[in-house]
Amino acid sequence: MYGGRDLNEALVVIAGVAAGGVVAVAGATKLVARDVWAASARSMGVPRVVWAVLPWLECVLGAAVVARIAIPWSALVLIALLAVFTAWLVTQMRAVSRPVCACFGAFSTRPVSWRDVLRNAGLIVAAGVASISV
Which of 91, 115, 103 is nearest to 55 (CA)? Predict the structure, then answer.
């Protein structure tokens, strides 16, 4: 029979896989469709250094959280990154013409929406759970 500690450990690991996995996939999709991602980022006014480094950062940081490397710091950095993304999404929600959400590279073709904000809020919660040392 499994005890409460086993369940808590499982939830922490699952949360890390969910949050880190989604962010790593987001980075990978940007790398796969680099030209589409670059064009989208440029159209939103994202500086070159940011759009060039961001996919790699997402891949490495997401993988670190999934693998539980440098916990809690990797999860806390992931929370900070997601908070910045979410703040940007909220500011874009106010724009008359909403840009395309390039969160998943060429696979994101719809304008930013509250759905994206809610997804990020869920990922922030999951990353917070993943930051717990077990």
Answer: 103
